Automatic annotation (TrEMBL):
<dbReference type="InterPro" id="IPR008972">
    <property type="entry name" value="Cupredoxin"/>
</dbReference>
<protein>
    <submittedName>
        <fullName>Protein DD3-3-like</fullName>
    </submittedName>
</protein>
<feature type="region of interest" description="Disordered">
    <location>
        <begin position="1"/>
        <end position="21"/>
    </location>
</feature>
<dbReference type="InterPro" id="IPR053320">
    <property type="entry name" value="Protein_DD3-3_O-glyco"/>
</dbReference>
């Protein structure tokens, strides 16, 4: 995985002005068993002033060996003119920062009734709590991807992870209880707006089929799935006759900023059956002029 960063703009790629990312196609294992995956991410910064492939520890300065790179060297630009000094720290000339490892599981498709040949896209959340300064060099909350283009009949898995104890080292600007992450998905008519659309006027829910949902009741009405996604999984449905204690009828009232909702959402897999463009936002974090947490799925 390689992205070239734009100089002096940590985190932005060299072309397009977008935050560095990688479009990853995860394998499907037909064994029907969970697969444990280890992901290692490293941020490398290197110079082209020496051959990075053939230069190694044997080139370290010792005895008669002269290192190809010297610290703060004096260089001659024009004969007869005093030398000029370059600002070079040899410890920074070929270096790896932010060496991170993550472990996650790839779950089998068969128990969820998802065909092995089906295209399944992930709709997740990136970034962290805070304003643009507090979050740097990460980004503020955003859906990832914030524009997903798929074919009619493709599947989308909505899911995200969050925390109740973020580690920004400051209070960090944002809605709801300090130090917490919360997200939800509510349809809107267009990304240039900031208000959601009522379920009765929605278009996305007429264009999807529920293929899988974390609590197993995929035959619930789509209005209940909309409630589940809008509440970040706090409610499973509207009526206690359908989901008992997990219903709007029985459960304590949801905080209007999702404070008592789960920080993470295991999610739902939807099959998009109709062509169109479907917009949605997060009601808690989308804050006009401060941060935008909106996205669109374009079905072609």
């Amino acid at each position: 995985m390689l992205n070239i960063y734009r100089s002096n703009h940590l985190g932005n790629t060299n072309r397009g002005g977008q935050t560095s990312s990688y479009r990853w196609t995860l394998p499907h294992f037909p064994s029907g068993k969970d697969k444990r995956c280890v992901l290692r991410i490293r941020y490398n910064i290197s110079t082209a002033d020496y051959n990075s492939v053939t230069t190694d520890h044997t080139n370290n300065q010792q005895g008669d060996v002269q290192s190809p790179i010297q610290g703060d060297p004096a260089v001659t630009v024009v004969n007869g003119m005093p030398d000029l000094r370059l600002a070079i720290n040899t410890a920074q000339f070929g270096r790896v920062f932010q060496d991170r490892s993550h472990i996650f599981k790839l779950r089998p498709r068969q128990p969820a009734g998802i065909d092995g040949s089906a295209k399944l896209y992930n709709m997740n959340v990136r970034g962290k709590r805070g304003n643009i300064v507090q979050a740097f060099p990460a980004v503020e909350y955003d859906f990832a991807p914030n524009e997903l283009r798929i074919k009619q009949g493709d599947l989308v898995h909505f899911q995200w992870t969050g925390s109740n104890t973020h580690r920004n080292g400051n209070n960090a600007a944002g809605e709801g209880r300090q130090g917490t992450d919360r997200h939800n998905v509510v349809e809107m008519l267009a990304r240039k707006g900031n208000f959601p659309v009522a379920f009765e006027d929605s278009t996305m829910w007429d264009a999807v089929q529920v293929v899988w949902i974390y609590h197993g009741q995929k035959n619930l009405p789509k209005s209940d799935v909309a409630i589940n996604m809008a509440s970040s999984g706090y409610y499973q449905c509207s009526s206690q006759q359908k989901c008992g204690q997990e219903s709007v009828d029985r459960k304590p009232k949801l905080s209007d900023v999702l404070d008592n909702a789960p920080a993470s959402y295991e999610g739902v897999v939807l099959r998009f059956t109709k062509k169109g463009t479907y917009h949605f936002l997060c009601t808690r974090n989308n804050s006009f002029s401060n941060r935008s947490q909106k996205a669109a799925i374009v079905v072609q």
